[in-house]
Amino acid sequence: MKYIFEIRVKEGHTAEEYADAWVRASELIQRAPGARGTELHRKIGDPNTLIAIAHWDSKAERDAMEASHSPQIDEIIRSAANFVEVRPIGEFEEPEWVVRHPE
């Protein structure tokens, strides 16, 4: 499954500041069972809007991590909370249909 959310970086701050916190938190979160990686994308034409995608084996494993993650993760998230607005987009199943360009 994928957990997707949008991040808007507030005036006077940069996406790189958020990315620093994102990487530090992600390194810890990725130790949880079922964690399968994260991605952070910058919106074309709007460098202060990002989309984050966290990949998990299942919603249950993501929920378990969320319910019991370490205080260190909470501290990292709080350190970025003052200069970003985070809007969850949602939780998505793996795609039923994938169209890929032939190689």
From TrEMBL:
PROSITE patterns: ABM (PS51725)
Organism: Microbulbifer halophilus
InterPro entries: ABM_dom (IPR007138), Dimeric_a/b-barrel (IPR011008)
Listed EC numbers: 1.14.-.-
Entry coiled-coil feature ranges: none
This protein's name: Antibiotic biosynthesis monooxygenase family protein
GO molecular function: monooxygenase activity
Keyword annotations from UniProtKB, A to Z: Monooxygenase, Oxidoreductase
Residues covered by the ABM domain: 1-92
Transmembrane segments: none
Statement: the UniProt record of this protein carries the keyword Lipid biosynthesis: no
